[in-house]
Amino acid sequence: MAADTKERILDTAERLFADHGFPATSLRDITQEAGVNLAAVNYHFGGKEGLLVEVLERKIAPVNEKRLAQLEELEAAAGSDAVPTEQLVRAFVTPLCEKWCKQDPSVPKFMKLVGRIHAEVDHDLRAKFIKQFDTVLHRFSSAFHRGLPHLDATEVQWRMLFLVGSMAHSMTWGGSFVALGGRDRHDPEEIFEALIQFATAGMSAPVLEPVAVGIGRGSR
Amino acid sequence: MAADTKERILDTAERLFADHGFPATSLRDITQEAGVNLAAVNYHFGGKEGLLVEVLERKIAPVNEKRLAQLEELEAAAGSDAVPTEQLVRAFVTPLCEKWCKQDPSVPKFMKLVGRIHAEVDHDLRAKFIKQFDTVLHRFSSAFHRGLPHLDATEVQWRMLFLVGSMAHSMTWGGSFVALGGRDRHDPEEIFEALIQFATAGMSAPVLEPVAVGIGRGSR
DNA sequence: GTATGATTTAAATGAACGTTTGAATTATTA
DNA sequence: TAATAATTCAAACGTTCATTTAAATCATAC
User: Fold this and answer.
1) Is A149 part of a structural domain of the chain?
2) Which of A126, A92, A123, A112 lies closest to A15, judged by CA?
3) Which among A80, A98, B10, B18 has most CB atoms closer than 10 A?
4) Phi, psi (rounded to 5 degrees) for B4
């Protein structure tokens, strides 16, 4: 029953953390809904924070592995050429979409949790969380840069930050603004396809030479 | 001393909510740091949630007003033509940047709070919060659509969602990933300029006719 | 100066929190 | 079956929380 208890706690915690946030979710909520004893969390995870760590790792690790695997496939196929930007965007985005949106409807909720981590947990835990994305961001930065050599490295990283933001935000808020005038149908695949178009164009945007207002433009 | 007390509470609450999140910040933290009595929050704001509402409104309202004012200026200048997409992006983004990043270094922290609101507070309060952006999103959607008539309204709204995500995410996480390999200089103006380039290209991205994998492509 | 209303204060209330404890129960091994 | 370890359990711990209360203080107008 041990593994059963652990998994029931993880599943329930994941859902409740995402729905109500980390501080607002009590161990009593989790254990009661999971049908396990209150003390089980401290026994299996050492405490509330330990539970959060395992919830995050369990969810993030396979996504980042899939991303890296797809990236390696693309790079192998491209040989010495740069991988097209759109394919890189796809390799980065789809592991959260195609793989999950169908099998695991909890992903959008999970993204809500991710979006809040950095301010809801203490500094050490936050650093641990960010570190999980280190390799993926490095590898994709390099790959993007190869196809966008006119950008400097910092610009590439900023654009990746924007890409991640678009992705996270659309999963977080996607459901809240649907009544804004459009149809309230929001097929995950459709919105992800739109995201890929948006982000590919964004990543490929031309660099703008700095134009200081009032100093003049096109100085060269 | 009344106005003084209210403002001290609002200022302190804004900072602490942003740093530690809404549930994790106690009224004791706020009142102690503000140098006012614990009961003052309930006296002036009716409770913790009432305080949050005023914190949010005080910060969001002037930004949205500035956005709408700039939009109207642009539309007046454009006459019967559509406002160029980049100018719309600028009008939407800069009220958070130019106006604030210089005068008010608390903006990035505030964005962290905004990013978490929808999951940290209960449904009614969340709805109230979202409603503050209703007019702005509607007006800008229409303006964007006028310049991008080949997109349908839903697509425009999705792309605005991505734009907002890029903006919020870069303010939220911008400081955390700087050690990723680039220089650790991150001038707010530079990153916002990069954001505008990214988002303008994203908003202007071509529509892709749906290509269903395995069914065939370019069927017509 | 005195009365009236607004604000501040200290103290207390009751509920909810994460965590601990030690006994009871279950599973594993010999 | 007996012994040992792993897990579950109910109960309690001490702390912190938002909120309330009623007295004290302040400002303002008569």
Assistant:
1) yes
2) A112
3) B18
4) -60, -45
Report how far apart, in Å, the C-alpha atoms of B162 and of each of A105, B165, B174 are. Answer: 21, 5, 16
Interface check B86 vs A, CB under 8 A: no
pLDDT digits 0-9 by tens, A107-152:
666 776 776 665 666 677 777 888 888 999 999 999 999 999 999 9
Q: What is the pLDDT of residue B104?
A: 63
The integer distance in angstroms from the CA atom of B10 to the C1' atom of D29 is 31
The answer to whether strand C lies under 7 Å from the CB of residue A42 is: yes
Helix, strand or coil for residue A150? coil
Alpha carbon A132 to chain centroid, angstroms: 11
Whether B64 maps to a domain, the answer reads yes
| Residues of chain A falling short of pLDDT 70 | 1-3, 98-109, 112, 115-122, 173-188, 209-220
Percent of chain B with pLDDT over 90: 49
Work out how many domains chain B is built from and give that number. 1
How far CA A172 is from CA of A116, B60, B79, in Å, comes to: 10, 20, 37
d(CA B43, CA B27): 12
**Cα–Cα distance for residue pair A162/B80, rounded to 1 Å:** 32
Instruction: Check which CATH number belongs to the domain holding B84 and give it.
Output: 1.10.357.10
DSSP A204: T
Q: List CB contacts of A132: < 8 A, sequence separation 6 or more.
A: A56, A57, A60, A61, A64
Which residues of chain B make contact with A23, given a CB cutoff of 8 A?
A: 21, 23-24
Contact A166/B167, CB-based, under 8 Å?
Answer: no
Instruction: Please tell me the pTM assigned to this model.
Output: 0.83
Residue type, A46: G
| Amino acid letter, residue B28 | R
Rg for chain A (alpha carbons), in Å?
20
Q: Are the Cβ atoms of A153 and B193 closer than 8 angstroms?
A: no
Partner B contacted by A106 (CB < 8 A):
no
| Chain B stretch 163-202, residues whose beta carbon is closer than 8 A to a beta carbon of chain A | 163-170, 172-174, 176-177, 180-183, 191, 193-195, 197-202
- Asked if the structure places residue B52 within a domain, the reply is no
Residue nearest to nucleotide C20 (CA to C1'): A39
DSSP 8-state secondary structure symbol assigned to residue B176: T
* Domain of A123, in residue numbers: 57-203
| Inside any domain, residue A46 | no
